[in-house]
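re: the backbone from monday

yeah here it is again, tokenized this time
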């Protein structure tokens, strides 16, 4: 029997994680695991959608009624993530921690507060209480320090909202520095894992808009190329760090690589293939976290032709150079996307608060 497209993607080195979770979704997870899904990611926007139907949280709501709204939200999110972690426990155990992961994000309003982020990361890890949870921390400047401290405390982290190569280098350095700190504290670093969530499709959305504004033939010819090029160049940065002598010395002491994770992989422009941010970003040991529509599209008609990143790193860097030459400001674009990403998650958090407060009345 020929392998499914998702199985072929796994064989090519990509772990398939679903970018969605809700209480009603929990019953579907075993079937998704059979289809090849090996993890789940969440964020405030996902939970804002999940919490629109609070009727499924009746018993849980009764248990936390009377507590501050933010505490109630964390309790509900932690309960869903805990249950999902337990469903994925066999995957986690069979892959020795490589897969079977479920992410939960710190409150987005803390994105620029180091100490509060570190404190909440510890609270969430304790509330979920499962070894396969990943605590999501935004890759703001302050977030880098929070990542280091959280890794040093022995907590596995999903670093999110990464858009620029410079910030990605900072993320990897924060991870390695955290491992150094953990070693100095006598921790078993073989139990610490991390992924770095590099956002993809949002880059094309913003860059294409700016290329249209420039309007020259050279600029318009670059539409739809920035996101994949940016991600492929990021993979080149990953190779330079995790093939380095510094990391190899840490690996000898049990360190795990921080895996590249491609986030925001749903295609937003209908003129582009609906599987472009999966098919064009295949390499080991990447993770691709997909919304359900993208997962279904790839399962139906996605094509796996092997590694589509490693041999394209130099050409990807050339495309980024061309974007600058036609008049784009890379730093301005990635800075805007980071700030916009935090703002969107803050707005989703406000929706969460409204939904929970309405249910508690």
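seq for it, each position gets an aa:
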């Amino acid at each position: 029997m020929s392998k499914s497209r998702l199985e072929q993607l796994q064989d090519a080195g990509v772990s398939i994680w679903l970018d969605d979770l809700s209480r009603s979704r929990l019953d579907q997870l075993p079937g998704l695991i059979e289809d090849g899904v090996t993890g789940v990611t969440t964020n405030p926007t996902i939970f804002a959608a999940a919490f629109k139907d609070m009727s499924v949280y009746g018993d849980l709501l009764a248990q936390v009624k009377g507590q501050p709204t933010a505490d109630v939200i964390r309790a509900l999110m932690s309960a869903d993530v805990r249950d999902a972690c337990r469903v994925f426990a066999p995957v986690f155990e069979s892959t020795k921690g490589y897969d079977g992961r479920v992410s939960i994000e710190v409150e987005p309003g803390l994105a620029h507060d180091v100490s509060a982020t570190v404190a909440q990361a510890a609270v969430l890890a304790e509330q979920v209480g499962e070894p396969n949870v990943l605590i999501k921390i935004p890759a703001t400047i302050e977030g880098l320090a929070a990542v280091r401290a959280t890794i040093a405390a022995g907590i596995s982290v999903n670093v999110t909202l990464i858009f620029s190569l410079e910030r990605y280098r900072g993320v990897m350095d924060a991870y390695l520095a955290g491992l150094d700190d953990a070693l100095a504290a006598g921790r078993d670093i073989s139990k610490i894992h991390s992924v770095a969530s590099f956002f993809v499709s949002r880059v094309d959305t913003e860059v294409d808009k700016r290329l249209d504004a420039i309007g020259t033939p050279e600029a318009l010819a670059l539409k739809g190329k920035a996101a994949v090029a940016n991600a492929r160049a990021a993979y080149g940065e990953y190779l330079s760090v995790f093939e380095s002598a510094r990391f190899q010395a840490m690996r000898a002491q049990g360190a795990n690589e921080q895996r590249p994770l491609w986030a925001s992989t749903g295609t937003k422009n209908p003129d582009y293939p609906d599987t472009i941010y999966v098919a064009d970003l295949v390499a080991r040991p990447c993770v691709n976290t997909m919304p359900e529509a993208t997962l279904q599209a790839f399962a139906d008609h996605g094509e796996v032709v092997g590694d589509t990143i490693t041999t394209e790193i130099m050409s990807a860097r050339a495309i980024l150079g061309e974007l600058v030459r036609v008049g784009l400001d890379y730093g301005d674009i990635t800075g805007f996307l980071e700030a916009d990403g935090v703002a969107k998650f803050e707005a989703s958090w406000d929706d969460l608060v409204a939904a929970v407060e309405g249910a508690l009345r």
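The beta strands are 15-18, 37-40, 101-105, 133-138, 157-162, 194-199, 258-263, 287-290. The chain has 17 helices and eight strands.
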